[in-house]
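name: query_chain
kind: protein
chains: 1
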Amino acid sequence: MISGKNKILVIEDDDDILELIKYNLTKEGYQVISTASGEYGLNLAKTEKPDLLVLDLMLPGMDGLEVCKQLKADMATSHIPIIMATAKGEESDIVTGLELGADDYITKPFSPKVLIARIRACLRHKARREIDPNEVIQIDDLTIHPGRHEVLVSGNLAKLTLTEFKLLHFLASRPGWVFTRYQIVDAVKGEDYIVTDRTVDVQVVGLRKKLGDYGDRIETVRGVGYRFKE
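structure:
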């Protein structure tokens, strides 16, 4: 259970949106600090050490992508989860942000409830980062056993290639998180199959078929990549 006292840093230059975020997060029990400046937000992240950052990409001066890049390049702040707030039609910025290390994104205008759900998911994942990578993942009747490299669907063994297994394990161990094709390639690094950003789609199609009823858990995020549905 994530504590309601988690500290959230919000960097947003729209006063109305900032106040809406602050009101709803405070109401949920989070400690909120905020700024409209990318430069000042970068300093706050280093001095206040927040548990999570909500970052608007369209900021005056230093924009959100540069803030994200600098935070993820610094060992002192690289562990802080970042949720990007983006405008519609900014698919290229979303992809760039994810490639720079952002953890999730939300498109404006957004519901405060959706933002809070994304924050909770990011904080849950942050808490699980130190979990043994060989831990068995159990999702209803889908069992993923890293130690054995086995996947059981309703008790039946799914015959996955090594690359398919790695792809499934990577996504399923981070439910709800969106990953670009390049991030998936870096994580999977196929040994039995040459994996590129273009062949990730082929791998996903084959994996969905082998997972049967659980195939639709692997969702396509248009213009970005894939995620495993929570």
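note: The chain has eight helices and twelve strands.
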